[in-house]
Design goal:
- By secondary structure, the chain is mainly α.
- 70% of the residues lie in helices and 4% in strands.
- A hairpin with a 2-residue loop joins strand 1 and strand 2.
Length: 201
Amino acid sequence: MADDKKVKKTKKKKEEGEAAPAEAAPAAEEAPKRASTRESKKAKRTGSNIFSAFSQRQVAEFKEAFQMMDADKDGVIGKSDLRQTFDALGKMVSDKELDELLGEATGPLNFTMLLTLFANRMSGSADDDEVVIAAFKSFDDGGKIDSEKLRHALMTWGDKFAASEVDEAFDQMTIDGSGKIDTQKLIQMLTASAEEEEEEA
């Protein structure tokens, strides 16, 4: 009886073996399709990967900032999100300014678009002095910058400064008795030092 079972098993294996080449042919045809699909996905990913322009740490910080700005948590920064962000910073902005900011994006301002905008700025497509001026003017309140708000921003967002680094930077600035920094003097100091470095080179 055991021999009969072995014979039946070998017959089944032979029958399956004969059917297998016929079934293997379609599988062989499918294999190249799978490989080409994988290759095309890899090509698409590597060709348009904005994340490769930044370190993992930078991407994580941008993601944190994006999540803070995306007040309604819909994955897109809209006009109301920007308004709430500026309100939280104590900065009043007009609808026109918000529209201009949103207009810089070529599509909806999702996280990838935000990274693309930062990458474009970092690549030198914007004048460095203009960026410095715009950055410090965003803290401006009647010609003065609150040093504590600036300290908080420098130590909280972007490439975070250590307290000692902020202290060192503040040593170079003129801060009045009420903790205010003259915006125009600060901008002149920062942009003049960049011009002096260019002249020396």
